Amino acid sequence: MTASPDLLDLLDGPVLEVAPRLLGAVLRHGGVAVRLTEVEAYDGPNDPGSHAYRGQTRRNATMFGPPGHLYCYFTYGMHVCCNVVTGPIGTPSAVLIRAGEVVDGHHLARERRGSSNERDLARGPARLCQALGIGLDDDGADLAAGPITLTPPAEPATDVRTGPRVGLRGAPDRPWRFWIAGEPSVSAYRPATPR
């Protein structure tokens, strides 16, 4: 199945235009729904911070596929993070889902996250995936077909801010992180730690 027309409209265009349009969209899975409050854009071969910067591998193959699919990866040997694939087939761009507000399924999100307070249930990309029950097996999931779905926002987000991406060594100063101002679920900015 391919993404619905509304979802394709949302994801159509360069990743730097698509990323802020995802703010306010709702990602739903496993009985939990999260309204997106913070995202980061990754522009494939044009972006040293992107997993696809050096070309296609088994790990990043989903980024080269059609828009409207979920790219999931394992990081720090313990966490899963997810991205929404954008752009045409063969153009590896994606939007990292950094944070959001749980708007449905609070009890399930709390069970998955342990003793998190409301603000931290889906604050940060790994916590968000944990709250939603998203794992590596969900890599390549079609966000229109389910069971993981992405619903475009009813209205575009207002008061959108931009700044550098969090903890990134490749192209750390590019202002490709987007968030809704005043949202408590937005991550604190941290630069990359030196190696």
Secondary structure layout plus pairing:
Blueprint: H1 5-11, H2 15-21, E1 26-29, E2 32-42, E3 70-75, E4 79-86, E5 93-104, H3 106-113, H4 125-132, E6 149-151, E7 160-163, E8 177-180
What can you tell me about this protein's structure?
The structure is a single chain. The protein has 195 residues and is α+β, with helices and mostly antiparallel strands. 15% of the residues lie in helices and 27% in strands. The protein has four helices and eight strands; from the N terminus they run H-H-E-E-E-E-E-H-H-E-E-E. It has helices spanning 5-11, 15-21, 106-113, 125-132; strands at residues 26-29, 32-42, 70-75, 79-86, 93-104, 149-151, 160-163, 177-180. Strands 1, 2, 3, 4, 5, 6, 7 and 8 form an eight-stranded antiparallel beta sheet that branches. Strand 3 (70-75) and strand 4 (79-86) form a beta hairpin. Helix 3 crosses helix 4 (125-132). It is globular and about 40 Å long. The model has no long low-confidence stretch (mean pLDDT 92).
Short recap of the structure:
This protein is α+β, with helices and mostly antiparallel strands. It has 4 helices and 8 strands, in the order ααβββββααβββ.
- Relative strand content: 25-35%
Number of helical regions = 4
Evaluate the radius of gyration. 15 Å
Stretches where pLDDT is under 50 for at least 5 consecutive residues are none
Q: State the total count of DSSP E strands.
A: 8
Descriptive labels:
8 strands; alpha+beta; eight-stranded antiparallel beta sheet; 15% helix; single chain; 195 residues; globular; 4 helices
